[in-house]
Design brief:
alpha+beta, 2 domains, 9 helices, Zip-domain-containing protein, transmembrane, zinc ion transmembrane transporter activity
């Protein structure tokens, strides 16, 4: 055998040995040199080994997929069960993960406890409800970055999120029988609020100057002031700042309308008071035929007709120049009621057109709102002098009792056509809210706050009554302002 053949046999034997040893341990090779097609390397002990380089297989990098911890892959979900509510949203369990039911019904009917037939549409997962409808499910927290939405005057205001703003009418599911039933709840609540002070002062020994009645009246004053600023002024500003209305050319629109409401309220009361003074003066100077006219000397020694000295000073009440009497006081209450009625009509309308997801929350707030406003108006009606007939007092209270349910009835009638994002609707609601705010600012600050504290019974009241009145005033402002978070 030639030397070449012996070298090949020796190389093959060494290669086999290296292969066996390599399967058991790792060898360190160095000083490699190329000998033809074979690479020879020096191993431990100076032994030479043939070495063949192998081509490493191509590796593919797989991008990691973010999966909610504990949630099974979407392809393995066939059903979700153990459904329960977190506040107003339904959640169900699949494996150890919790899923949010995106398309769950929003009515008051009992929600399903299980959804089956789960399947994928692209990256989204859908399941079948017991009634055959299809709902979307998503891992808990997948929609946490969405907008926080609430309703103001029938318009859905959203904070956060990246959804595109739309001014088109939004189709929602409305539970009409529920709205009709709760209309009567609002009716009863309004009646309790407005009639209670009237009945209490009429059929009990509680007088309008008692500490209980004074406290109720100051609570009502706080409610009126808070309603004007926190509810109506704020809502009007939101209306005129709505993106669907576009940019206003006059930025002070809301404040200007509020100022108009204040001025018109002042003008009505001023003209009404001047008219009452004119009528009294005319009657004093024109005695009826056959009436005995008595004369007396005034402080200057001049002889004057009895009753002829009619003027702001002679008619002063509690030391200030507002003329007393049933006519002027009744006029003040009518101005207050006008402001309340304007926005109470809107309250009834916008309560009904709110979506079912927010309706019950808003309803609970409106119940307290109507109760507080009813007490505020009722105390003013009850404080009217006895010369105002009982029937007139009942008529004024009944008007407040009916106005919000009437607004709700109108809302039910236009439920499927109302679009709170329509520019004309926004302008109408914003204008009425701002104008009502102006009326209530005048009544709350001038006729109730300043009149009672600066010129009325509280100017020189005992300390105890003053403290109670002040606490009730603050309570009315605070509670009504708190309700402003939801309505």
């Amino acid at each position: 055998m030639s030397s070449l053949g012996r070298n090949l046999i020796k190389s093959c034997a060494l290669l086999c040995c290296v292969t066996v040893v390599a399967a058991q341990q790792t060898l360190t090779l160095s000083n490699c040199v190329q000998s033809g097609s074979i690479e020879l390397c020096q191993g431990p002990g100076g032994t030479t080994y043939p070495f063949t380089r192998s081509v490493a297989p191509t590796t593919t990098t797989v991008e990691p997929v973010s999966i909610t911890e504990g949630s099974p892959p979407s392809s393995s979900i066939t059903a979700v069960s153990g459904c329960h509510m977190h506040e107003t949203q339904q959640f169900c369990i699949a494996g150890t993960a919790e899923y949010e039911i995106i398309g769950a019904p929003t009515g008051t009917e009992e929600l399903p406890a299980r959804y089956t037939g789960c399947h994928s549409h692209g990256e989204e997962i859908f399941c079948i409800a017991p009634d055959g409808s299809e709902v979307e499910i998503a891992p808990e927290g997948a929609h946490e970055e969405g907008p926080d939405c609430h309703f103001h005057a029938g318009v859905e205001h959203c904070i956060g999120g990246s959804e595109e703003v739309t001014c088109e009418r939004v189709d929602r599911d409305y539970n009409v029988p529920l709205r009709i039933g709760l209309l009567f709840v609002i009716l009863v609540t309004s009646a309790i609020g407005v009639f209670s002070p009237i009945l209490v002062t009429s059929f009990t020994k509680i007088h309008t100057t008692s500490i209980i009645f004074v406290g109720l009246k100051q609570f009502g004053a706080g409610v009126i002031i808070s309603t004007a600023f926190v509810h109506l002024f704020t809502h009007a500003s939101l209306m005129f700042g709505n993106e669907c209305l576009g940019e206003l050319k006059y930025e002070a629109t809301t404040a200007a309308i509020v100022m108009a409401g204040i001025f018109i309220s002042f003008l009505v009361e001023y003209i009404g008071t001047r008219f009452v003074l004119w009528r009294r003066s005319k009657r004093a100077h024109s005695p009826a035929p056959g009436e005995n006219v008595e004369y007396e000397r005034n402080g200057d020694g001049k002889t004057v007709q009895d009753g002829a000295q009619i003027g702001p000073v002679a008619l002063s009440h509690h030391g200030h120049s507002t003329p007393p009497g049933s006519t002027t006081e009744k006029l003040n209450v009518l101005v207050l009621e006008a402001g309340i009625i304007f926005h109470s009509l809107l309250i009834g309308l916008t309560l009904v057109v709110a979506g079912d997801s927010f309706f019950l929350t808003l309803f609970a707030v409106i119940v307290f709102h109507q109760m507080f406003e009813g007490v505020a108006l009722g105390t003013c009606i009850a404080a009217l002098p006895s010369s105002v007939s009982w029937s007139h007092k009942l008529l004024m209270a009944t008007a407040f009792m009916l106005v919000t349910p009437v607004g709700m009835a109108i809302g039910i009638g236009v439920l499927n056509q109302f679009n709170g994002s329509d520019p004309s609707t926004i302008i109408a609601i914003g204008t009425l809210d701002a104008f009502s705010a102006g009326i209530l600012v005048w009544v709350g600050v001038v006729e109730m706050l300043a009149s009672d504290w600066m010129h009325g019974v509280l100017l020189q009241a005992p300390v105890g009554k003053t403290v109670v009145a002040l606490l009730c005033l603050i309570a009315g402002m605070a509670l009504m302002s708190l309700l402003g978070k939801w309505a």
